Amino acid sequence: MRRDLVRFSKWLYRLGFMPGTSGNLSARLDQHRLLVTPTGVSKYLLKAADLVIVDLEGRQLAGTRKVTSEVSMHLAVYRLRDDVDAVIHAHPPLATAFACAGRALDEMLCQEAVMTLGVVPLAKYATTGTDEVAASLVPLVAGHEAILLANHGAVSYGNTLLDAFLKMETVEHLAHIHLVAHQLGTAQTLNADQVEQLQKAKARYVHNATRPESRIALESYTRAIRL
Q1: Catalytic residue from among 70, 107, 145, 169
Q2: Is this model's pTM higher than 0.85 or not?
Q3: Exposure pattern of 104-119 as b/e (b: 16+ CB <10 Å)?
Q4: Does the annotation count 70 as an active-site position?
């Protein structure tokens, strides 16, 4: 798990989602503990030994560095979603620009938006490093897979680090599509019937993905990216 957190941290840095020492990641170790990135460390220079362990109240249990000041954001997600085992907070540039413009990613402009994340809402403004951030997420976490943070960045979460990472990557991808479509001046949103058909297709896809052969393929892919 330490190696995986370091690996995904470096990928997010290389994508430009975590410049400087910004951003943080966490993963559930068990029902009582989380493995979390520390504060004030470049995600490119992060080492496995730098990671810290906290309980679900945010109390640090192990590690020589201090836990990220934004740990309350992660804790809020874990408390509200039993199905979540990994959380990523990052500053993807285009998605963060939408958050700074006060705009959610709530237009279904492309089929991929419906098939992946659906609406990515905008949480109300909250001062970074405070419990206000966690409070701003509470109304939104249950019904969404990623959230924009007003004038701040984004948070995504999933049942694995890979899942949370892919969702964060998709948030930035959808922000790019939104930006260019509106720059072109002829953005066409999907209508209600089209969205409904895509949601049915998504349900079939999710069902097929839970089959044993699909799980084996996913496990093989996960092992491959670790090499």
Answers
A1: 70
A2: yes
A3: bbebbbbeebbebbbb
A4: yes
